[in-house]
Amino acid sequence: xxxxxxxxxxxxxxxxxxxxxxxxxxxxxxxxxxxxxxxxxxxxxxxxxxxxxxxxxxxxxxxxxxxxxxxxxxxxxxxxxxxxxxxxxxxxxxxxxxxxxxxxxxxxxxxxxxxxxxxxxxxxxxxxxxxxxxxxxxxxxxxxxxxxxxxxxxxxxxxxxxxxxxxxxxxxxxxxx
Length: 177
Known about the structure:
The protein is α+β, with helices and mostly antiparallel strands. The protein has a domain at 51-158: CATH 3.40.33.10. The protein is 44% helix and 16% strand. It is built from six helices and four strands; from the N terminus they run H-H-E-H-H-E-H-H-E-E. Strand 3 and strand 4 form a beta hairpin. Helix 2 runs parallel beside helix 5 (115-123) and helix 3 (58-73) crosses helix 4 (88-94). The N and C termini lie far apart (66 Å). Mean pLDDT is 79; it is low at 9-27 and 168-177.
């Protein structure tokens, strides 16, 4: 009788184990959230009287991605300084952006954050509102990452870039040549 129970239990365990091992990992595509941040910043700027159109800059997006990943992976971080002591200016220069920059960071203790929650956090913080409403900020890069218990969004703003494009043929952006 005991051998019979084991005979039924082993296939069930194998099926269960295969289901767990075969479960794909969820990967969030935050393009909609990131683009929504850009649209909301555009709105804040135009409410402030700006007549320029803020544009997505891949160099600033890379700088935002680096800091987002740093904040996601280092729970002691919750602001502009990286785990290596880097500033937003350091990260923007490393990404190839040559203009003056500023940054806004949001950390939400949940799997996700809505664009409304995010913009409300930044809008009601005087220092972040001033960054978003600054008409001289003509470039932006936004990146966000989600963990099961934490979402981080970083926006890096730039006042113009005179450096040549960092992306070259035959290599991914941000990778050594």
